[in-house]
Amino acid sequence: MVVRSIMVLSALLAACPAAADTPPPIETQSSAVTAGLVDPAAEVLTLEEEDNRRLTIPVRIDGIGPFDFMIDTGSQATAVTREINDSLQLRPAGTAMLVGMASRRAVDLVEVARLDIGSHTITDLSAPVLEREHVGADGIVGLDSLQDFRVLLDFREQTIAVEDMREQNASSRGFEIVVRARQQLGQLLITDAVVEGVRATVIIDTGAQASIANNALRDRIRTKRAADVTTIDVNGVDLVGQMSLMRELTIEGLSLTNVPLTFAEAPAFDALGLTDVPTLSLGMQHLALFDRVAIDFANRRVMFDLPRDLARAMRAARRGGQSFRF
Predict the structure, then answer these.
(1) Tell me: the pLDDT tens digits for 19-51?
(2) What is this structure's pTM?
(3) Using an 8 Å Cβ cutoff, are 114 and 63 in contact?
(4) Where in the chain are the domains?
(5) What residues does 182 pair with on adjacent strands?
(6) What are the tens digits of pLDDT across the range 178-190?
(7) Fold of the domain spanning 178-325
(8) Which residues of 3-27 are buried (b: 16+ CB within 10 A; e: fewer)?
(9) CA distance between the termini of the chain
(10) What is the CATH code of the structural domain delimited by 5-10+40-164?
């Protein structure tokens, strides 16, 4: 019997810089809709912040719920927790090898006949069963449920819009930065980022709190070892890495400065064939620096919307032929 592998990049960090503070949700029409960033007919859901800083949305499984699931662009598969499975008694669907940031471990699979995210319905999923204490939510909405969609995270208003791009025009209007990505095993990879002068591949990982890079990037940068930090992956296994402060990370002319990265040799990078390619997984601590981030799986693009004052400064820098740093 062949046991398939499933990658879940996300990790919880026991010691890492806190994500940027975000304001509470507001009860007015989403500015992403009024600004034309999403279709007026798109459903805008409120993100909730769990005690461990997980941002979740309500979903229903086989018509039951709602349950609090996080959108995780670092996970190949939609997953449920053991507590949800015990409650719903989902049908067993075999086993799989779950590849986390720190480990590989066999997990049970269950059948999810129907998953409802707002008005969107995904059917016939085989979902790994994870422990809630390692996920930080009732479950994960993974890449197998997102391939036809654009996910727009609005950190300013704490909302999320999930649009079916099979029914929409692929517009990027209103975003300061639009990055083309290539797809590999369901992941969208940005391949033209530069860290400390070294070209690197970037994975956008909305399920991870902090950003993790592989040792291939560390060796090219030749950074000095810094503070040890411990990550706990979705299998509950510790991974000890070394956190260093990068002076600059540049994507499409936008440079983030003083970027903390944790370097570790993670099985998940190996599963993507990126062990020897300088690579980093960009987590929520850096994604939340933007006003909005849109991940368009259907059209293989990642789009970033800066706070208004920074957007004006970036446009001025571009007119002068310069890159913009913040």
Answers:
(1) 334 333 333 344 544 344 445 445 565 655 544
(2) 0.80
(3) yes
(4) 5-10+40-164, 178-325
(5) 189
(6) 899 988 877 889 8
(7) Cathepsin D, subunit A; domain 1 (2.40.70)
(8) eeebbbbbbbbeebbebeebeebee
(9) 52
(10) 2.40.70.10
